[in-house]
Amino acid sequence: MNYSVIFYVIGLLLQFTAGFMMIPELVGNIYHEKNAAYFLVVAAASLLIGTLLRLKKPKDKKMHAKEGMIIVALGWLVLSLVGAFPFFLSGEIKSYTDAVFETASGFTTTGASILKNVEAMSHCMLFWRSFTHWLGGMGVLVFILAITPSGADSMYLMKAESPGPSVDKLVPRVRTTAFYLYAIYFAMTAVEVIILICGSMSVFDAFCISFGTAGTGGFSTRASGIADYNVFCQTVITVFMMLFGMNFKLYFLLVCRKFKDAFKIEEIRWYLGIYFGAVAIIVLSIINDVGSFGKSLSHASFQAASIMTTTGFATTDFNLWGTLPQAILVMLMFIGACAGSTGGGFKVSRIMIYFKEVKNEVSYLIHPRSVKRVTMDGKAVPDTTLRTANAFIAAYFLIFATSFLIVCVDGFDFTSSFTSIAATINNIGPGLGTVGPYGGYSAFSIPSKWVFVFDMIAGRLEIFPMLILFTPSTWRRK
User: Fold this and answer.
1) Cβ-proximal residues to 7 (8 Å cutoff; 6+ apart), any chain
2) How far apart (Å, rounded) are the C-alpha atoms in residues 431 and 175?
3) Quick check: 165 pLDDT over 80?
């Protein structure tokens, strides 16, 4: 275990966290808010600790897969613990556990909240809350890959932090890949901000909502979510949620004018097919209750996009919908967005792999001598990817079941307890029942909230980095 490189990168992360906090501090100064000073205090402490961790440069800068996963898992825990202090010290969130919950929900782009009156918060705190979505969407460590101790080994950080079964370098150098990803991410966010402002949304709200859309997070500046904004803004948000839920490899290929390769991505076709199929079923299910086709289509398309991309915004209380549309939304919770996007869930690529494996197994039972491989985009899926995908689903349901049993001790109804785990481990935010779109997580006990924090980070990091971090043998010296 290369401890020196781990501490060195964590120190770098803390230094960047201090820099990130200067932005909400500036927002607070613009609105003349005294609570902005707490960002300076936390930033100074973060900068000091980060600098101390980086005083001694590691002699061996090699970073292997294990170190990469530990750095990412430990880094996201540190982000959640440190990022919570402005909320807690300012008194805008009274409990440190609640502050960590809110911050972890932000960085992991979950959007689950313990706040009962979000509109009572200061602008600087609301901005920081939404800004964590944007930082966590593409990955904080991906953002600082350019100056990690060893550029050649940085691929392990990208693999551990980027959502999806596998991560490939778009260009030969990881540093350049990270640059392209964030350039696309930044440009798409900027375009959404501009369009929302043109749609009569305030500048402050446009930035906060765009941060939530880009990171597929779901924190809003209003208790009503997105319901109070006009239909134009709701439509724009729907489109951008779907765009940010797509594999960013698509945008890279389009920018490089490799249109033929871009339209060969099979996962995108599945993603859009599942989405439009879900919207059609929901529209037919709620049209009689809503009263018009236009409203039904608007609500169905928005909520299906919000849940499938694991954004968590809401324009209506889908707790009031019938059993079938609610069942469709729960299924979308598990399916999730594309690999290589900012969304959570199983990822459409894994659903494709599982479907094709089942299909091949049935074919093998009928024709025992046949030999078939699971393919994606016309290429055979490597055995290592298949093995990892199968291990993922086993680990996923093990954590899900354990978390569910712990949360059930709180005594909430089955629907609330079940969907609270589904919503946190899949990084969605709202569930059904108590944790519906206009509910929250404040009533859960402290142990349950820490379970949610673990699930949110584990779900965002594809389970295994967190399992490695909490495995005792990881830390034993040979």
Assistant:
1) 53
2) 38
3) no
